[in-house]
Amino acid sequence: MRANGSTVAPFDIASSDLPEHARKIRYTSAPEARSWPWPNAMEMLSSNTVLTKRCSLFVCWAVVSLLLFIKPVSSLVRLSLSQDDASYLVLIPIISAVILYLERHEIFRQVSTDVKLGGAFLFLTGLAAVAWLLPRNVPSLGLQLSGWILALVLLWVSGFAFLFGNAALKAAYFPFLFLLLMVPIPNFLLDRLIFLLEEGSAWITGALFDLVGVPALREGLVFHLAKVSIEVAKECSGIRSSMALLILALLVAHFQLRSFWNKVLFVACGLFMMILKNGVRIATLTLLAVYVNPDFLFGRLHHQGGVFFFVLALLLLLPLLFLLQRSEAKRRVMAEPS
């Protein structure tokens, strides 16, 4: 405070005549008032405003790219709604967006503009788009759709790199790698994958028959038993539940484990469970048909029992998850200074 050009020192007023909340009043001089952290608050407010603008621009980038790729995106939605082995496709971008939101504080801790990195991904987008525009390089419509969706994913990555920079893109590596599951598996690769699932399921089934002492003659994917003969057909590959199990394994590994190699081990065991659960299902239905009732091969357990064996595979993964988490906790304790 100033009176007649002089500076008045800070002072307190205390009076018993005043109410309790007003008995002590602190008057602060101008030099003390400047000690308040208003510059830091203004910087934080400005930083949040810039981040909000960048996020809004990225949303606009994503929406415009969807409009540019409206035909392949429409084909992707129809494919996901019409085929059981592709039903997960439309869920992948939603899950990726949720992960970006949940980890936004870590991802957007350091934000910048990286024109070179964004341009590199934009160049890859152009290459992918041009490759599928050339008719001689498109042997099938399924492969063409995979190429267009891959170009769309690269375009999203390009926009993110442009607006948020290299550090943010590194922090967001998982949701963008996870987004690659949105690309439909080409038919020739899908057929190969289904065949591998059939072979693996047949091997597990044969091993279980040997384990319980059931005589069975195997001819390729066909098993001849005393009363029935079964074939591990394409419909028995369990591709839909296997993809669901893989997606869950990836998400659990990302959120519950820290070590890269522990994550790899958990996902690898998830891949093995894809085959194990299928072999257990085939062997169980066959044994029930042989020793209880042949109708088990045509009943509800055969057509609708996949959920039970899917849950069984998840339960088998839980002990491994607990062991890996426990080992990581021990390592953290040992790493802490005493």
Give the neighbour order of strands across the main sheet.
5-6-7
Strand content: 5-15%
**What count of structural domains?**
2
Any low-confidence stretches, pLDDT <50, length ≥5? 1-16, 21-38
Largest sheet properties: 3 strands, antiparallel
Count all strands and give the number. Answer: 7
Number of helices: 13
Question: How far apart are the termini?
Answer: 53 Å
- Cα-atom radius of gyration: 31 Å
Apparent shape: globular
Order of helices and strands: EEEEHHHHHHHHHEEEHHHH
Task: Give the integer mean of the pLDDT values.
Answer: 81
Helix % is 55-70%
State the secondary-structure class. mainly alpha
Provide a compact summary of the structure.
The chain is mainly alpha-helical and about 350 residues long.
Report on the structure:
α10 packs antiparallel against α11. Residues 1-16 and 21-38 have low confidence and may be disordered. The strands form three sheets. This protein has a three-stranded antiparallel sheet, with no helix packed on it. Strands 1-2 form a two-stranded antiparallel sheet. It has helices spanning 30-33, 38-68, 70-82, 92-102, 104-107, 115-133, 141-171, 173-178, 187-212, 239-256, 260-291, 300-304, 306-335; strands at 2-3, 6-7, 12-13, 25-26, 217-219, 222-224, 229-231. With 338 residues, the chain is mainly α. The relative contact order is 0.07. The longest helix is centred in the C-terminal third of the chain and has 32 residues, at 260-291. It contains 13 helices and seven strands. The protein has two domains: 39-184, no CATH class; 188-335, no CATH class. A hairpin with a 2-residue loop joins β5 (217-219) and β6 (222-224). The protein is globular.
